[in-house]
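Justification of resources, computational component.

The compute hours requested in this renewal are based largely on the per-chain cost of generating structure records like the one below. Each record pairs the submitted sequence with a full structure-token output. That output is archived, and it is also reused by downstream analysis tasks.
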Amino acid sequence: MTELPLLLLHAFPLDARMWDPVRAPLAERVRLVTPDQRGLGRSPLPETGREPSLDDAARDVVALLDRLELDRVVLGGCSMGGYLTMAVLRLAPERVGGLVLIDTKATADTPEAARARLDVAERAEAEGVAGWLAEANLPNLLAGTAAPDVVERVRGLIDEQPPAGVAWAARALRARPDSVELLRDANVPALVIVGEQDALTPPEAANTMVGALPDATLVVLPGAGHLTPLEDPAGVVEAILGWYPVS
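The structure output for this chain reads:
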């Protein structure tokens, strides 16, 4: 028996470098793929003429699987990466052999959250993102006890994101559908990881996903906030490798 490859999708407003603290130990055990999502990191933002939608980002993921000749993977992500994981599951469930949902949730945005995302998109387009976007997000992204080097690492990643990609992603996120019923039909093993102090997608949101999924394992990481792969990489690695399914 061999393990399926693992494809991990990053959080907003970061890029695939957020996986650096977990990359080496995971790659020792499984084939690991960590793409930048469209418009973020080094990934271009295609001109489509359509309203931003995670459906297009999901098609990017399926196209990547095709290029890499991967029929099925364990698919997962943190925060926005979890939302995109659910979009891929909706688009191409046959490509998903397991789920890793990290500090994310299955419900859609509230009207207030959707409005706030639009504000972010408009300000990114008008002003760029350096400085203000990190300051606005850091208090919710990390636990108050996060190490100073982790805080500065996240700040640097946010400051480096292309404003157009941030705006596109914010608009796509605000339009995403509720995915609770989708998870009820997910007939694959799932791992749900959440930081105990996650202010954005708290343990209650993780419990909602676990309650919907037919075959779910929950891991709560003490003392960590919303970006557990950066705040507690050892805990995330242990959770994933201890759970990992074989094909």
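The chain has a mean pLDDT of 96. The two ends are 6 Å apart (CA to CA).
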